[in-house]
Design brief:
single chain, 425 residues, alpha+beta, three-stranded antiparallel beta sheet, 13 strands, 42% helix
Length: 425
């Protein structure tokens, strides 16, 4: 079926995928340039390191998460039971593995705002394989202006055969829209500005030909004299060893340094601001819109939690709904996000210990949370252990501490009793 749909076609109309593929490559006149004069395409956007790194990080993070399949018991109050994954979740098709398959879906969502999956089923409706389609090859229409009429999908301008199912995962979706918003189109000015700045920087270094300074002479200098003067000056003042040495020029010659213009000097700031814009577009910047937040050791962990909650989770939920729709009723797919939300090891062990001490989890459940295997008798709650409160220090204890401090250190106090100097014995 896919071979017939994706086979060669000779007729080129706006409903084909051929023109749309050319549009995606930037080879078509349909694509209008941005205000910066740069045409933004999927390929050109990938040339920006901020785009490539954001797409790679999000798609790889989602694709490498553990995936589990559950069956919901008839009693809704019972916990779901984990069952083996469906074969098409382990190996979607003969060409790619599960990680590559899920990564390609995320790349389509991040760059095109839509992902399309075609399930191949047997005669009884069981899913055998899953295949992804490039978003540029799919055209979505509504056969009637009535909003209650289902959408119709065309692949390379050809209507889907009867009985063929297509799973459409949109990104940001407006009411009554046919497809999700395309970041390449709706944010093309931001991409174009960064592509223009990148091209400007490359040309500046390749063709700028800007020397660090010039030597001006009131008299005419021959070519050989100029060459000798430059060589002598560079040999006397070039390199680290000759830095800051005093120079002497005779016959009225004058050395004049050349500095970059303010616009050229702000090139780096322009790129940094553009990168921050693109990172916010993909959800890799500050989730609350600040592009100037400094990264410190204290907020790195919180930054990772924010990316997981506000960036990865919305995409994961879309994937879970799409794949769970292919399972029999009562079964569903879940991506395991606990590994990304897990705190540091010390905090994790303290939390697990508190849960076992307060009989919220058993010993084996706590060991599972820290990646340890079960132990015999570990399925029972530990005896409840109240937290021991530290005794309130008495006046005698404080006096002893004062004496010990005075014994170890020379402590000088003023007339008000405040410590002024401390010197170790």
């Amino acid at each position: 079926m896919l071979a017939n749909l994706l086979g060669p076609r000779t007729k080129r109309t706006l409903t084909d995928g051929s023109l749309w593929a050319a549009w995606a490559r930037g080879d078509s006149d349909i694509l209008s340039p941005t205000m910066s004069g740069v045409k933004v395409t999927e390929s050109s956007a990938y040339q920006l390191l901020s785009v490539y790194s954001s797409v790679r990080l999000i798609s790889d993070a989602v694709a490498t998460l553990p995936v589990k399949q559950y069956r919901q018991p008839a009693d809704l109050g019972s916990m779901p039971t984990e069952i083996p994954l469906a074969p098409w979740m382990v190996k979607p098709n003969s060409d790619v593995d599960a990680i590559t398959f899920q990564s390609s879906i995320m790349a389509s969502l991040l760059l095109r705002g839509n992902a399309y999956i075609v399930p191949i089923k047997n005669d009884v409706g069981q899913v055998l394989e899953l295949w992804t389609l490039h978003p540029d090859y799919v055209n979505v229409r509504r056969p009637s202006p009535q909003l209650l009429v289902p959408r119709t999908y065309y692949i390379l301008g050809q209507h889907l055969p009867p009985g063929t199912q297509i799973i459409h995962i949109p990104g940001i979706f407006l009411p009554n829209a046919l497809t999700g918003l395309d970041p390449i189109t709706f944010a093309k000015e931001a991409f174009g500005k960064n592509l223009a700045a990148q091209a400007y920087g490359a040309k500046f270094f390749a063709q700028g030909a800007m020397p660090s300074g010039v030597i001006k002479s009131p008299a005419n200098v021959s070519k050989d004299q100029a060459k000798e003067l430059i060589e002598n000056w560079n040999s006397a003042h070039g390199g680290i060893r000759n830095a800051m040495r005093t120079g002497v020029l005779s016959n009225g010659a004058e050395y004049q340094p050349i500095q970059a213009t303010p616009d050229q000097a702000q090139f780096l700031q322009t790129q940094q601001y553009g990168d921050a814009e693109i990172e916010r577009l993909f959800g890799m910047g500050d989730p609350f819109g600040s592009s100037h937040a400094s990264m410190t050791y204290a907020n790195v962990e919180q930054r990772g939690i924010d990316v997981t909650r506000f960036t990865l989770m919305p995409w994961v939920y879309r994937m879970e709904q799409a794949f769970s729709a292919l399972l029999p009723r009562g079964q569903f797919i879940k991506w395991d996000m606990e590994s990304l939300l897990r705190p540091d090891m010390e905090t994790l062990y303290r939390t697990v210990a508190a849960g076992m001490r307060n009989q919220m989890i058993t010993q084996n459940e706590g060991r599972a949370l820290v990646g340890r295997g079960p132990v015999p008798g570990g399925d029972e709650f530990l005896p409840w252990q109240p937290i021991k409160q530290a005794a309130t220090p008495t006046v005698r204890d404080l006096e002893d501490d004062e004496y010990e401090q005075r014994r170890l250190f020379d402590v000088a106090r003023d007339e008000h009793g405040f410590i002024t100097t401390v010197g170790q014995r």
